[in-house]
Amino acid sequence: MIVANNIKKIKSILKIQKTANQVIGFVPTMGSLHKGHLSLVKMAKSKSDFVVVSIFVNPIQFSQGEDYQNYPKNIKTDINLLKEEGVDLIFCPHPRDMYPIDFSVFVDETELSEVLCGKSRSGHFRGVCTVLVKLFNIILPDKVYFGQKDYQQALIVKRLIDNLNYDIRMYYLPTIRDKDKLAMSSRNRYLKDNERLDSLCINEALSLGRKLIQQGETRVFVIVDKMKNVIIKKRTAKIVYIEILDAINLKNLKIVKGKILIALAVYINGTRLIDNTVINVK
Ligand code: PAF
């Protein structure tokens, strides 16, 4: 396994793989890896000849006052985990190499980014799109792997791949949950025991949303209100948003019908957690 931080070196290694007609699978990450990431890596291993994982905490996708400086970093553990998975190349660039002093070109998705996390984290998806375009241009992957926990991100990346004519096949894998059903996230490491208990209200609210729909409730405002009641009971929880949207175009809905997304973002004592579920309603 090669671990490299130099962009030129990475490009030359990957050029050799490309020339040898190797199918390149790529999993972009910000490190502090958990089973969710590893499920993407395992899938990449099964579907490609040469697997690249990037570990890069991308400064430009954090807004001011967010946790960029404190974002969990476990590079040694990450490298060992990826070695065990049989990853071929780890790319961990330096922020200054990714964003030199004269960096002034950004990539904006202007539709799907307007709602949910895009509304509450100004500039976030601009940062995500920009770093992914850079990573795609450096790595030239044939296949990329994303998780459903970041549903909006996955939808935006698909749009980016299509709109910018990348010949990349995107795989989109289910959210991996811990035993207590909390969606795996690098930010879960911030949670103290009592906060972890409180955070379970997120999945409880999603389960309630699903149950209400199964029981025939169709009014979005009723479902969202009942979900809110589950969250506000927890002392450390503060809702950023709970929304039910069309899962394909992220447009607002009054009545649930077709493929719908229930998505929420909640602060648990300052730790921002997101989760979602997608349902096909007849
Ligand atoms: O989902 C993430 O970890 C990040 O947004 C990504 C895709 C690695 C871009 O920095």
Describe this structure in words.
It is a single chain. This protein is an alpha/beta fold. It folds into 2 domains: 2-173, Rossmann fold (3-Layer(aba) Sandwich), CATH 3.40.50; 186-281, Pantoate-beta-alanine ligase, C-terminal domain (Pantoate--beta-alanine Ligase, Chain: A,domain 2), CATH 3.30.1300. It is 39% helix and 21% strand. It has helices spanning 7-19, 35-47, 75-84, 95-98, 116-120, 124-139, 151-163, 193-214, 220-232, and strands at 2-4, 24-29, 50-55, 89-91, 143-147, 169-173, 237-246, 258-268, 271-281. It has a 6-stranded parallel β-sheet, with helices on both faces. Helix 6 (124-139) crosses helix 7. The radius of gyration is 19 Å and the shape is globular. The termini are far apart. The model has no long low-confidence stretch (mean pLDDT 97). Residues 28-30, 58, 61, 128, 131-132, 150, 153 line the site of pantoate (PAF).
Unreliable residue stretches: none
Total count of helical runs of at least 4 residues: 9
Assign an overall shape. globular
Main sheet record: 6 strands, parallel
The chain-level structural class is alpha/beta
> Percent of residues in beta strands?
15-25%
CATH topology of the largest domain: Rossmann fold
**CATH architecture label name of the largest domain:** 3-Layer(aba) Sandwich
The rounded distance between the terminal residues' Cα atoms is 48 Å
Number of strands: 9
CATH class of the largest domain: Alpha Beta
Ligand roster: pantoate
Q: How are the strands of the largest sheet arranged? A: 1-4-3-2-5-6
